[in-house]
Batch of 2 targets.
Target 1
Amino acid sequence: MTQNVTPRPVALVTGASRGIGRAIATQLAGQYDLILVARDQERLENVAATCREAGAQARTLFLDVADARATAAALEGLHVDVLVNNAGVAVLKPFLELTAEEWSRQVDVNVNALYHVTRAVLPGMVQRGKGHVCIIGSTAGRNTFVGGTCYTGTKHFVMGFAESLMLEVRDAGVGVAVITPGSVATDLFPEGSNLTWMLEPQNVADAVAFAVNAPPHMLVHRLEVRPLSPKRPRNSF
Ligand code: NAP
């Protein structure tokens, strides 16, 4: 196993190139060195530069987390103290309009990648007897809506996966947290969507920081964050 050569702990964030993942990465940069994962090289390098300005060492991995082999090869043996499984895709349309490709992509990224990424870094945490696995779920993991057959299904999966994994590894000193945001103003929504009433990505990053900074004996397992007063849009967007 590769040794951590820096004195700071290491956080790996998937889907760090924009949106919620970008906010999480820059939030954690004050405290952690970072391994940033996504496919868009230019955006990811920009996020890495911001993290370095905040004092972190930041390494970029241009990776499709749905690619099992590439993910195992890239992540095998990395020392990771905090894993944030954030990468996700949403194609929100009625079932009869959803193509097989759109279905598979959501399952591959939102569900199967949880296996590929977590399987690669969790053994090191268990071996060391500490670490955090944080997963960005959604209120769509408890709710349903028209156009959400596949997306809500994947996020319901996240809830079951996260709680089962938590029960499996908490005795080994590894915490598993699932953060379930309501709507957040990001590119997940189609261009032209009204984002003015939504949470901001930083709000989710704050929730992640709260979960991973809990006292050693305290496990934050589930944290739901929602917009307050969604019917009164803020002017400051
Ligand atoms: P976003 O702005 O569209 O960002 C998605 C991120 O995931 C991007 O960085 C993207 O990077 C990465 N990604 C997508 N497919 C990938 C793949 N195959 N391999 C590697 N990275 C991939 O969306 P977001 O709103 O920030 O979403 C982040 C997470 O929050 C998702 O899990 C989403 O389900 C969840 N969430 C979002 C909301 C919301 O309202 N926005 C609410 C609740 C939960 P590249 O394109 O560069 O690869």
Target 2
Amino acid sequence: MSDNREPNCIFCKIVAGEIPAKLVAEDEHLVAFRDINAQAPTHILVIPRKHAKNILEVADTSLVGHLFSKAGEIAVKEQLQNGFRLVVNTGDDGGQTVHHLHIHILGGRAMSWPPG
Ligand code: 5GP
Ligand code: ZN
């Protein structure tokens, strides 16, 4: 289920199993795996299998809902009931470095606000 893949996209390669990742959850629409450069004790990325550059390029609103609801489920499974943060960096000013839509799940420590 990785149609619409981008040949040079690192997250498409993770979806295809061409780059190893520590998988946390997956279903027909999404894959969740641990961030290689964790910024908190728990740092997981939830991505759609199908490539979309960012939130502005996803036509399928039910997919967006599914990604967020799965992110919440994963946070509970990871024992983050005390609080966690979901982050979607978008575009250059948003600090997006991998241009395949992803939700960061960050938890296991108190978060500060505002973000940098
Ligand atoms: P962004 O800055 O685009 O919001 O987040 C991209 C995230 O992807 C970063 O937190 C970065 O550490 C993570 N990342 C980049 N390359 C890889 C990789 O090959 N494997 C994993 N597991 N995470 C990656
Ligand atoms: Zn991709």
